[in-house]
Structures are given as C-alpha cells and as structure tokens.
Amino acid sequence: MVTKKPIPRKKQNFKSNKPSGNNSQNRPGYKKPTPRVEKQAEVIDKTIYYRNSLTVGELAEQLHRSASEVIKKLMFMRIMASQTQAVDRETAELLAMEYGFEIKDEVITDMTKYDELQIEDDPKDLVERPPIVTIMGHVDHGKTTLLDTIRHSRVVQSEAGGITQHIGAYQVIRNNKAITFIDTPGHAAFTEMRARGAKVTDIVVLVVAADDGVMPQTREAIDHAKASKCSIIVAVNKMDKVGANPERVKQELADLELLPDDWGGETPFCYISALKNTGVDELLDTIQLVSEMLELKANPKRNALGTVIEAKLDKGKGPVATILVNNGTLKIGDTFVVGNTFGKIRAMNDDLGRTIQKAKPGAAVEINGLNDVPQAGDPLMVFDDEKLTRDIAQKRQDRQFKEDHSARKTVTLEEFFQKADGNIKELRLIIKADTQGSIEAFKGSIEKLNIEGTVINIIRTGVGAITDTDVSLAEASNAIIIGFDVQAPANVRDTASQKGVEIRDYRVIYEAMNDIEAAAKGLLEPVFEKQVIGEAQVRDVFPISKIGTVAGCMVISGSIKRDASVKLMRNGKVIYEGKIASLKRFKDDVKEVKQGYDCGIMIENYNDVKIDDVIEASVLKEVE
Ligand code: GDP
User: Fold this and answer.
1) Which domain holds residue 327?
2) Which of the listed residues 135, 149, 275 should we mutate to test ligand 1's pocket, taking the one with most ligand atoms within 8 A of CB?
3) Mean pLDDT of the chain
4) Domain count, the chain
5) Atom number in ligand 1 closest to CA 137
6) What pTM did the predictor assign?
C-alpha cells in the first residue's frame, strides 16, 4: 500500500531541476551523479492525473521517469506501445501501482470544456418548458406516418399557410402548451447523439405495430430509452388493421418490464392508427400528462444552452444548424460556441419557415451565422464576450487536432521489430484465409520460422472475409491481421484504419513469410505518397517589411496544416512549390486551419503571392 502525503503538485519546479532531453543519461560516457541528500528529500507529487488520450510520454512525465523506461515497463506487462500512443485507464493504473503512485481523474478547469461546467439556475427563475419527444420503434411500424400525422393535423389548424420545412424538429400546440418532436424517426440519430454525450429527449414514444408485435428494433429502442433514463409511452399502432392484436403486444411488452397502465402497471399505453389519425389526440394528451409529472423546468432569463439536432452546408446560406434550446433564450445577435466552431446568430427560423427573434427553452430553430458546420449532438453555449467564443473554438480545434493525432494505434509489422532492445517480444497475429488448408500451411511455416527474441502467437484463425470482430480483437490485443486471398470490405478497412489496426493482404504464404522475416531484420521500408489535404484561396496580401508577404486566405476545402507542403496555383498553373513558413489565425500560430476559416499563410522563400491564387496543401502519407 502506498502512503500518500498531501503534497502540492510541483511539476514545473521538478522539471527545471532535471537534465532535459529524453536520453541524456544514455549518452556514452555519462556518469550518474551521486544524488545529494537534499535532492533525495525533494518532494514530488505521487499522483497521476488521468484523462482520455493521455500518451505514454505524458504519463512518463507525470511519473517523473523517462519515456523509454516506461515503455520497457509496459513491455514487461506485454503491452507494446510507443511514446505517442495513448494509454487506457487500466494500464495507467497498473503503471501507477508499479511506481507507488496514486491515480486520479484530471479535474476540468478548462473553459473549452464548458459543456461539462454546470451553471446553477436560481429556482425562482425556473418556469415550465415543453417536453422533447422522440418517436422510436421497429422499421415499418409507423414512426414516419405518426410524425407526419401529428405535424399535418397541426398545420391544417395553423394560420401560417401550411408551408412546413424539415429542420429536424417541430412543435405542436395542444391545450395551449407546446410539445417538441424530434422528427428524425428511428434510433440511429438518438444513439448517435447519446454516443456524443447529448441527452436531448425527455420522452420516448415507442411505436409497436399491433399486427406485428415486439421486434428486434423494438427491444433496442427500449434499451436505449431506459439507458438514457427517458420516460416511455407505448403507442400500439395500426389498430385499424384486421390482424391487430393489442393484447399480444401488451403481453410481449409486459415481459420486457413495460407493464401497461390498464393492467395496473406504470407504462402508459395508447392505441392508435397513425394512418387514420385515430387515438393521436389521446397520445398527445398522455405526453402532456407524463410531461407534467416530470416537472420539466428551464430558466428563460439566462444565456441559451442548446444542442445541435441537424447541421449542413447550405448553398445559399452557408453553414446552418437546427438547435434545440435546452435552457435559456436564444436571441438574434447572440454570440456562441458550438462544438469546435463559433458564430453570431444572424437569422433564425422555425419549422414553418417563419423568421423569429427569440427562441425559448424547448424550441427548435434553424440558425445561421455559424463559422463552420457543427456535428449533430454538439452542445451550443452563448457567451456575452465575442472574443471568448473565438478563443474557445480555436482551443477546441487545437485539442481535437491533438486528440486525432494521438489516437490509439496498435502495432504495425514495421514498428514491431524496430526496437531491438534485448527483451523477448510477442508478435500477435490474426489469420484469415480462403481455405483451412492455407491456414494450416501458414501455421506450419510460422512454426519453422525462428526469429531471435520474438515469439509469434496466432490468436485467432478463420476461414472467410475479415470482419469488424477481427478488427476489434486485433485492437484489443494489439495484433496484426493477415489475410490470404480473402476480402476485407471497405467499411471494415475504414474501422481498422480509424483504430490503427494493420491489415496485410497476401496471395501466397511465402510472401507473408518474407515480409515477416524482412520486418524482423528491419528491411521493410514504409512507402510514402503525397496526399492533398486542402486548398486555401488568397483573398488579400500583406507585405510586411523584413519578413515577407503574408497571404490572407480562406480555406475553401479540407484543411491547411502547418507542416504541409504547398503548391501555389494561379489560373490552374503551378507557380511555386515549397513549404509553409507560418500559419496563423489572427495573431496566433496554429497547427491546422479547417475549411470555412480564414488564416494568414506565409510560404517559405516566396513572396510574390497574388489575390485569387490558390494554395494547395499536401502531406506525406504512408501507403500499404
Ligand atoms: P417507419 O418505418 O416506422 O417509419 O414506418 P412508416 O411510417 O414508413 O410506415 C410503414 C408502413 O405502414 C407504411 O406503408 C404506412 O402507410 C403503414 N402504416 C403506418 N401506420 C399505419 C396505421 O396506423 N395503419 C395502417 N393500416 N398502416 C399504417
């Protein structure tokens, strides 16, 4: 057991007392100085502050050890990782234990994580807000029909002329109170938002066709609704059909712990025909009843907090997004941060295409005035300070960039053999082949292969295509997938590349054996290829004496990265090829600028940039 002392964290001081550079102690002739007694007594904080995407290098720093020592320690734990790879919490905990450290989760004080900050409302400002309802259920059970029926019945009554727009959500008024419906049926959108940490829905209306009963997606919908703690109302649909059997539906749902209210249970059941518009009013009444019990409240006086329901790049309007206002009032002119971007509300309209000035809690509005297209599920927050919104968005982009680049990557064949450090290493393989014969033959050859210091472990074999399950296993066990004459569908390859899992395809066994041997001897050289990552158009030029010419640009596709190579194009011709000397947003140096943002670019050793020139950026990428 580690004894913990309440010692303040002194990372900065500690660092300055140590020789800098990773391997200064490994220099030939370096003699370890005898530690002085006072040095020994120096206090270090024996705590690791864990956060997602913490890399081996950063962890080593917190442990006050060299990265190479920590990498070695990990190898003893049978984990192959490089300095820039991320460690999961479990591994970090094991390492902490090894070194007698305590582990804590990093406390968020970072404003860019504003969505995790809680701002309390004064209870006297709270007023009732409309419920947010999502309709879920099995395919073909009538979700879209129900959404259309509800919307249609309202439009007929409204005076707005009935021109509805799909913005991803709409409101109906019943008994003088509003209900907001998210009008993307099905649970794909719901699940995606949940995966991104957004809880938007208060009530799930579970549609079950009376002639079909509980089906697989019905069960999935129940699981999602329960996991996100939404109230569930069951709408038994298609009651007009000859084969309708609501009793069976009730029984099936009772078995899934949704006991109907007419059987004395707690789940409200409504019996409807979405097609014939019967029972729909009762369903709306039930929604309002449940909503009253939930006592949904919000504070219209505060700055708005919202969630993106949908977002797109509109040809005429630029980036637009539908925002569900969760709390506060969203107004024209408000400056806000949303996801990794920011903006100022220039215009808002509702689902009837009406221009509006203010959106109250529970309302869904399409906004424009965004600098970039956010993602569904992104939180929106209004700030009084416009500059702050820019800063937060830029910091969030930088963080995203860092996270993308430190994403967990499993081992590759080249990397595996690169570090010859005398320890026994285990190369894990997953073998997929077109026939069992090929698998056996490959296993036979592998057994004969003798690579010093390496154990080759085949963790799974199988006949048939490479699947997502193989990729998950490879990721979890740091393995490489080898395929002999088998397919890996594009989506599987995409997942593999996202997770950093290497898939190697071969037609014949000896080629695979050759590669493994070559890699072992360090002969397998990676091949690189230039890939265009983005374009920026020059909108203005600023000659700065003694420094050069800064091109004021707008990134018109992809992104521009600080370390990219560039081609300067004029009227479709290449005028100059070189490197970026500096990349700035406002006054700050940045690593990357994405589409839709402006930036200042200086090209190394080139100053003759003209308005309307296009700067094409490319990076070297490894090819298989
Ligand atoms: P979703 O996949 O759940 O969105 O289902 P849809 O709303 O697209 O409906 C699937 C089919 O069922 C369509 O042909 C609808 O016309 C039909 N349908 C939906 N509701 C009812 C209903 O209440 N009664 C009858 N008879 N048919 C319905």
Assistant:
1) 305-404
2) 275
3) 81
4) 5
5) 3
6) 0.54
